[in-house]
């Protein structure tokens, strides 16, 4: 148990008995949940962690083969649940962690009571009859830029992902997160994230879920939110007034209210 908790830098806070498990998105770590932690820690037990390669996780545990698929990250979530003896967890995942959490719940549904997806996407690449938001060639250019100048890529893309240019401190915070990530691991995680296709996994979900879809998001357009709702059993969709891809940072009050209404 100790090895898993150290591997993923697991932190447990809060006074409640009911467990909330928070899973950060690409290029981030558990600190992105600060605003939500402050709100829920008085009533819930909160479990936070870093994926291997992020934050204060054990980078030495990174394995390109294991983490070459989202299932590798999903297994880490299940490992944490098993190590802590968790059951009926409220899972909150941002961005790619939405699909990672879904994969974990499909494999071991007993660990989860509800899933909350913030800015999810089961497929980022446009396909016939499907709008994901990206063309494959655009992503290849993105990967090339990452490989040649990761810091420059981070400083350019992070503020665009965050949106909300009237709050430049948020874009700066996300940039700092990106820049603190190991470039090689970030590059591999980006490819796993943006080239994944989890559309066929949606119909297998047995756990009630909520999709929080921002009204203007360059990573997950509105069409993706509607697709999640239409193709995931037991999924509720909330179109938020918030813009950008990180409403838990840019619009925490609206995000908190949506979560409270669901749980």
Automatic annotation (TrEMBL):
SUPFAM superfamilies: alpha/beta-Hydrolases (SSF53474). Keywords: Hydrolase. GO terms for molecular function: hydrolase activity. PANTHER family: ESTERASE-RELATED. Residues 19-251 form the AB hydrolase-1 domain. Belongs to the AB hydrolase superfamily. It comes from the Bacteria. This is Alpha/beta fold hydrolase. The keyword Hydrolase applies. It comes from Paradesertivirga mongoliensis. The keyword Oxidoreductase does not apply.
